[in-house]
Amino acid sequence: MLCPACKKAPQAIVVGSQNVTGQIIVGEIVAQHLEHRLGRKVQRRLAIGSEPIVYQEIETGGISLYPIYTGLIETEILKEQPSSDPGVVWARAQQELSRTARLELLDPLGYENPPAAVVRAADAGKSPVSTLSEAAAGAVKWKIGVSYEFEQRIDGIPAINSYKLPMAQVIRSMETAELFPALQRGDLSMIVTDTTDGRLTLPEYRQLADDTHAFPPYQACLLVRQEVLAAAPQMSESLKELSGKFTTESVRRMSAEVDLQHRKPADVAAEFLSQAGLK
């Protein structure tokens, strides 16, 4: 007879994320929620790196699940030109990842995180603009900065260039951490960052609307290995509880609490779950 100690240990659940504050917080929320619901320890591999690196980790089994954006799935993973319809983009991504990679794309979490064109509010006040089309129609010649990762996306630079913005210099690529300081110094007059960046809660910055929808829908969803869901039957229902619980504003606010107020992601995550009635 087999003794209880001889039973096979359950497959580890490992939550990953990109090296971005908003994703780190959402990943921590997911990990804590699963620990509450499943009554077992969940491993964290947060802040792994860029999207291609994190996707490779889930493909090879290094992580079990992570937050991802539908537009990135279409452009970076499937290498397709996405629809402008969020529902169509989600359905296509869900179908193809299930068919080709045995990965399950869950229902949207409720927030979107497309690239955001950002200017200093003081500069925008001198020449009032609120959209990228208005920026293109004005007399200002722009000095634009983007991250190296954004530069490499097939939906990145082409989307910005579609507005035909007057340019003072070619678009500069740099480390993500250098973008806001360069904008603040005046070395740049526009940067492209994440919509959920916590610094966008500050009054000195203004986000310009992507009014022609040059960027595809970027709905946030959880991507999970199917074998992990099969091994932990309660996991799927537990993760569904998170669908629709987030907003772009709530993730931006939580990012600000970590980046600007220097709170720990674990504390911010625990507070979110409590306020959402999930703890």
Name the descriptors:
279 residues; alpha/beta; D-Maltodextrin-Binding Protein, domain 2; 2 domains; five-stranded mixed beta sheet; three-stranded antiparallel beta sheet; 13 helices
- Strand runs, count: 10
Structural class designation: alpha/beta
The sequence of SSEs as H and E is EHEHEHHEEHHEHHEHEEEHHHH
Question: Strand order, biggest sheet?
Answer: 7-6-8-5-9
How much helicity do the residues have?
Answer: 40-55%
The coarse overall form would be: globular
- Examine the coordinates and then state which fold CATH places here, giving the name of the CATH topology of the largest domain: D-Maltodextrin-Binding Protein, domain 2
The CATH superfamily of the largest domain is identified as Periplasmic binding protein-like II
Distance between the termini: 39 Å
Summed up, the domain count is 2
DSSP summary: helix tally:
13
Radius of gyration: 20 Å
CATH architecture descriptor name of the largest domain:
3-Layer(aba) Sandwich
Main beta-sheet strand count, sense and barrel state: 5 strands, mixed
Low-pLDDT ranges? none
Per DSSP, what share of the residues sits in E-state strands of 2 or more residues? 15-25%
User: What is the C-level CATH assignment of the largest domain?
Assistant: Alpha Beta
Mean pLDDT: 94
